[in-house]
Every structure is written in structure tokens, then in C-alpha cells.
């Protein structure tokens, strides 16, 4: 077994504390509020706290940039809606997002520098989902993509939001 890092130890210790008082193992897999949220993986966003989502109430799908147009986000939404009954989709991007600071080729170059040419070749096919316009426009693009996705039964119940990482407030933009 590999050496345990400090972060691994912290995870295990914190989980022990959490599990001592855990009393929600009875929750069903389908989210109670029938909501799916697509948001960024940014560590400054705590969807449960920021959006008042109790455990078991919503699916939270996270990726870099909170893009609903990436294949894995769509796959998760298909499962969420078709198999687990969600009816509403909230796309929530945020201010000061790192995805607005680089393009895919920049990321490939960082991988090349850190891991070599073979690794860089491997990630050239990655869909990065970098921002091509303003934050509000990126949210609108995602909302329009989902509203036009005939594979989603809840496509008419898609809304788009921007979360401000400095104030904690969310604002509807689409």
C-alpha cells in the first residue's frame, strides 16, 4: 500500500467525524427536489451552502468551467432526467473562473512541460470547454444548448445563473 499523505489522513479523519452523526442513509437516489445543477468544480463554490441544497435534494454535476456542453455533463444530465426523474436544470457559472484565463492549447503545453510529449499528445483530443465570450454569454450558450437538446425531457425547464465568488450572491442571466 502506498504511503498515506496528509490530505488522505485528513479525509479519513474528517469522514470518521462525519459518519459518527450520519443519519441520512435512508435517502432515495433520485433527488427529492427533482433538480440537476451543472456548476464549476471551483473550490470556492459550496453548492449545498450557497444554494440551500440539503443532502438528497439535487444532483450536482461539476466540471472545470461548469460547462453543460461537455460530453460528460450531458451524459450525467441524461441519467439524471431519464433514469432519476429530475425536471429542472440550473446552469451556474461563476465570476473569476479559471476557465476564462486560458485556451486548450495552453493546457496542452502545461501537460507537455509537466509530463512529456506522449502525455501532451494524449490530451490534445480533450474538449476543454474554455470560455470564448463573456461569462453571461457562456451561461446563455449552455442554456440554449440544453434547451435545444431533444434528448432531454426537461429542456424547457433550464435556467442559467452567475454566482459571484466575492459576495456569495447568485443572479439569473438566462
Please give a structural write-up:
With 174 residues, this protein is an alpha/beta fold. It has helices at 6-20, 47-50, 71-83, 104-115, 117-123, 135-147; strands at residues 35-40, 58-63, 88-94, 158-163, 170-172. Strand 1, helix 2 and strand 2 form a beta-alpha-beta unit. Helix 4 (104-115) packs antiparallel against helix 5 (117-123). The chain is globular and about 50 Å long. The mean pLDDT is 96.
What topology emerges from the helices and strands here?
Layout: H1 6-20, E1 35-40, H2 47-50, E2 58-63, H3 71-83, E3 88-94, H4 104-115, H5 117-123, H6 135-147, E4 158-163, E5 170-172
Parallel strand pairs: 1-2, 1-3, 3-4
Antiparallel strand pairs: 4-5
Profile the largest sheet: 5 strands, mixed
Shape: globular
**Extended strand count:** 5
Run of helices and strands: HEHEHEHHHEE
Distance between the termini: 49 Å
User: Mean pLDDT across all residues, rounded?
Assistant: 96
Q: Which structural class best describes the helix and strand composition? A: alpha/beta
Strand order of the largest sheet: 2-1-3-4-5
Radius of gyration: 18 Å
Number of helices in the DSSP assignment: 6
Q: Helical amount among residues, as a percent range? A: 25-40%
Strand content: 15-25%
Outline the low-pLDDT stretches: none
Tell me briefly what this model is.
This protein is an alpha/beta fold and 174 residues long.
Amino acid at each position: 500500500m502506498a504511503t498515506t499523505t496528509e490530505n488522505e489522513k485528513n479525509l479519513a479523519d474528517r469522514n470518521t467525524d462525519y459518519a459518527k452523526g450520519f443519519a441520512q442513509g435512508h435517502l432515495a437516489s433520485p433527488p427529492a427536489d427533482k433538480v440537476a445543477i451543472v456548476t464549476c468544480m471551483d473550490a470556492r463554490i459550496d453548492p449545498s451552502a450557497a444554494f440551500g441544497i440539503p443532502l438528497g435534494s439535487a444532483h450536482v454535476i461539476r466540471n472545470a468551467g461548469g460547462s453543460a456542453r461537455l460530453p460528460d455533463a450531458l451524459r450525467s444530465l441524461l441519467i439524471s432526467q431519464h433514469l432519476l426523474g429530475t425536471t429542472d436544470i440550473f446552469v451556474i457559472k461563476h465570476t473569476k473562473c479559471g476557465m476564462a484565463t486560458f485556451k486548450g492549447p495552453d493546457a496542452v503545453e502545461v501537460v507537455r512541460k509537466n509530463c512529456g510529449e506522449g502525455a501532451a499528445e494524449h490530451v490534445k483530443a480533450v474538449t476543454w470547454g474554455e470560455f470564448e465570450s463573456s461569462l453571461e454569454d457562456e451561461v446563455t450558450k449552455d442554456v440554449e444548448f440544453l434547451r435545444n437538446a431533444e434528448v432531454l425531457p426537461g429542456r424547457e425547464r433550464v435556467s442559467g445563473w452567475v454566482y459571484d465568488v466575492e459576495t456569495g450572491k447568485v443572479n439569473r442571466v438566462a
